[in-house]
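Protein modeling request. Please complete all fields; requests missing the sequence field cannot be processed.
Requester role: graduate student
Desired output: 3D structure, token encoding
Chains: 1
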Amino acid sequence: MDEKQAARNTDLRAALKLMETFRHLRSDMPMQTASAFLLIGLNPGISQGELLRKLGTSQASVSRSVLALGEVDRHGKPGLDLIRQVAQDGRLSVLYLNFSGEALLMKLLGAGRTDPAR
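Delivered output (118 residues):
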């Protein structure tokens, strides 16, 4: 295997590890929810409106993702409890990773580092 193919395989293994970390959290997690989580980690204090623009999806989809990542999902069942919403004024709230979310982010960052020998 040449060097370019070996580097590609290393990158693919890292991507697979990231996806598997999300799957272990919730096997049916939509990709947009995982993307929302990562965007909140990249942009602490992001508003749902800005999250909507960055994801390029519907308001309903963003709301579902935010609820799924919070304490209680849209069905009233326990959510993933990875983010917290902080009210800024009557209509605007901003999103941050909570302690569990930061721990998951650290785990994901570790999962992205892969041993090239594997």
